[in-house]
Amino acid sequence: MKIIGDYRLFKPNEFLSEYYAFLGEENKALLRFHHEFYSHIPQQKSMLEIGGGPCIYQLISVSRKVGSIVFSDLLKVNRDEIEKWVNGAAGAYNWDQYFKYVLKLEGQMLTAKNLQSIKKRVQKKIQTIIACDIRRNFPLGINHKQTFDIVSSSFCLNEISDKEQDFLKYLERAISLIRSEGYLVLVLVKNATYTKNGDQYFVNFPVNETYMGKTLVRMGLKEISIKSIPNEFNQGYEGIIFITARSKDYNTPEVLMNPDYQPNNSLRCCDPYAMEK
Ligand SMILES: C[S@@+](CC[C@H](N)C(=O)[O-])C[C@H]1O[C@@H](n2cnc3c(N)ncnc32)[C@H](O)[C@@H]1O
Q1: What span, in angstroms and rounded, lies between the C-alpha atoms of 260 and 242?
Q2: Domain that holds residue 15
Q3: Which of 15, 16, 74 to mutate to test the pocket of ligand 1 (most atoms within 8 A of CB)?
Q4: The whole model's pTM is what?
Q5: Between 20 and 30 A from 97 (CA), which of 25, 43, 176, 266?
Q6: Is any atom of ligand 1 closer than 6 Å to the C-beta of 182?
Q7: CA 133–ligand 1 middle distance (angstroms)
Q8: Three-state SS for 152?
Q9: Which CATH number belongs to the domain containing residue 235 in this structure?
Q10: How many domains would you assign to the chain?
């Protein structure tokens, strides 16, 4: 088995069939995680999705809580998939089973009209599709210094390199794109040294709940929530970790003026295998 780190070899169609063709327990848990979290936050203006791949499932629930979504990914093939889907073009991936599941979570009737309108809701909110390389100091490009109310990333930040210092850099960069007191929404595979995509295997830096909790506290995040579920299939990881947190208040004088400032963080939940149904 050859493990690679070169995403230029990534095949969106193989990836979609390997991970998203079947709406099993893992994928339902992903949708519930997003639904639960976004149901409980106030209305926001902007969201950045980092390394979104050829996927939009992670944007369904947030689309009713945010004014606009900037979708980003390293690869043009993935960005093209999203553009196709947003434009309703022929050959776009069919996410209907995901939309139907979220309609149920939102307590809406499963009618053709509701299905159409929830899809439109997501299409309307994805207003920008841009290139992103989290390995660079300015992941969205040197001229793009905007911060966002929500920064979200799924199955990306620890699936690019097997080195801890790389992962920490990518995580810090993602966090630096959140506005003061904004939200981080992160989904990671647990304890993986590789993840499988068809006949390809991509390198991972293995993380678990405890490591992520300590790391996010050290990086100054607050209101950290960490949950996880065990894996459903054997694709290289032990489970999935679901994280939400808030960035610090950059306007607080202690943060700005005192280099030894220790944020008063609490780890609200570090509860493996306790993802609610
Ligand atoms: C395993 S896929 C995850 C896709 C999607 N987020 C999901 O939930 O399934 C990893 C994604 O990270 C993207 N990626 C890889 N290296 C990246 C980088 N340096 N900067 C930004 N995105 C990257 C890949 O193009 C791919 O779409």
Answers
A1: 30
A2: 3-271
A3: 74
A4: 0.91
A5: 43
A6: no
A7: 9
A8: strand
A9: 3.40.50.150
A10: 1
